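== Folding task for one protein ==

=== Format: two labelled lines per protein ===

==== Paired sequence and structure tokens ====
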Amino acid sequence: MQKTKNELEEINNRLATYVHRVRQLKNEDDLKTLTSAIAILEQDLRSLKASYDCQLNHLTCSMRIISEEKCELEKELIARKQNDAHFLDRISLESSKNAKLLLEVSSLKTEISQQEHEIAALKMRIKHLQMDAGDGKSESEKLSEEIFDLKEK
């Protein structure tokens, strides 16, 4: 019986060793699966990091380009504002000159109108003087005829 007991203990020990080895193999298999999963995740992480870095570089480059464009547009805007201010000053100056010229034109028109009235009045006076002179000429002719008639007699 002792022998059987020893055999049973030995079988039991061997069974325990097998169970332990099976568990160890199972743990190793789980570890391999876990290691494989970790490797896959690390690869995904590297891929994502590379993609992230690429996008970050692209966005940084885009921001630099946009910043340069913004700077150029701001310079252009300042130049246009200065140009607009210059033209507004010129417009103001020309408007002032135009207003002075309009006043001068109005004054000259008034002066022309007055001189036209004077010319019309002088023409009327000349006409009256010519008429008076014409009457005087007629008188002179009549007197000359009378003198001629008297001389002939």
